[in-house]
Amino acid sequence: MMRKATTSILGNVLLAALALLFSTGCTSLVVNPLLDPLTLSLQKQTDLELLEEGSPSLLLLLDGLIAGDPDNVRLLMTATKAYGAYATILYEDGKTERAANMSVKTRDYGISLINQLRGLKNINGQTLDEIEKALAKIQQDQVGYLFWGAYGWALWIQHQEGAAAAMADLPIVELIMLRVVELDDSYYYGGAHIFLGSYYGSRPQIYGGKPETSRKHFERALAINHRQFLLTHVAYAQTYARMTFDRELYLKLLAEVMEQPLKESDMASSNKLAKVMAEKLIDQVDEFF
């Protein structure tokens, strides 16, 4: 009962703010004081069920804000993060079809975010050479837009179950993440390294996999986040350890996730999700090895 009441209150607050926005038209008056503490609070939340139930109200708010200001990079980045987190929680809760539907919004907002950068307008209509030249001109202060845009795109690809049209986009995402590494490889706990480690480690060598490159990216990410961002361990186990049939490493990484206590921090919700994922992967060990 308390959970439903909390979710309802959150929804009412967000919808009231949305109504205020539509009545005043002053996006800037609402975005900073409302979204910043909200998103920070969500990052620190360890009750994934509460996050799943309460997120739709925030997503509706973001949709409304972006409809009124579609080129606002701050809104686009927040929406990409929020829809991505919601899609991931849904997937781990077994709601795979709904997660795939939410990932479409993650992709759309992610690509819109990238499109705001000079030279990358209509990025999915450009050649890889054109994209690479444009990325070379992007500066460090724009690394967040690159990372979260690519993240949103990659999450959608992940939910397409190997569809050819989606897989054809992966080289673009790879180029963007490589540029993130060049600009600031520590951004978001080494997030670009985690993506690249997963990308190179999820395929056999005969199909373009690069296990040693994958391992180096994961080890770099672990060094950057001091082994505190537990989704690093999960991705390392899921991809590199499985693809190289390293059962010992697989179990070691997942055991480390389960043994680390949850701390109040900006990575609390991610680490709670990592623990849920790790528990499932440990149960499945005999299926993989």
Tell me briefly what this model is.
With 289 residues, the chain is an all-alpha fold. It has helices spanning 2-24, 27-44, 48-68, 73-92, 96-115, 128-135, 143-158, 164-167, 170-184, 187-201, 211-224, 231-243, 247-259, 268-283, 285-288.
Report on the architecture of this protein:
- By secondary structure, the protein is an all-alpha fold.
- It has two domains: 35-168, TRAP transporter T-component (Serine Threonine Protein Phosphatase 5, Tetratricopeptide repeat, Alpha Horseshoe); 185-288, Serine Threonine Protein Phosphatase 5, Tetratricopeptide repeat.
- Helices cover 76% and strands 0% of the residues.
Features:
Serine Threonine Protein Phosphatase 5, Tetratricopeptide repeat; single chain; globular; 2 domains; 289 residues; disordered N terminus; mainly alpha; 0% strand
CATH homologous superfamily classification of the largest domain: TRAP transporter T-component
Question: Helix fraction?
Answer: over 70%
At CATH level 3, the topology of the largest domain is: Serine Threonine Protein Phosphatase 5, Tetratricopeptide repeat
Assign the structural class, choosing from mainly alpha, mainly beta, alpha/beta, alpha+beta, or little secondary structure: mainly alpha
Distance between the termini: 43 Å
Please report the first level of CATH classification, the CATH class of the largest domain.
Mainly Alpha
Rg estimate, integer Å: 19 Å
CATH architecture of the largest domain: Alpha Horseshoe
Overall number of domains? 2
Quick one: biggest sheet? Answer: none
Discrete helix count = 15
The tally of beta strands, per DSSP, is: 0
- Provide the succession of SSEs: HHHHHHHHHHHHHHH
- Spans of at least 5 consecutive residues with low confidence: 1-30
Tell me, briefly, the overall form.
globular
Average pLDDT confidence is 86
Beta-strand content estimate: under 5%
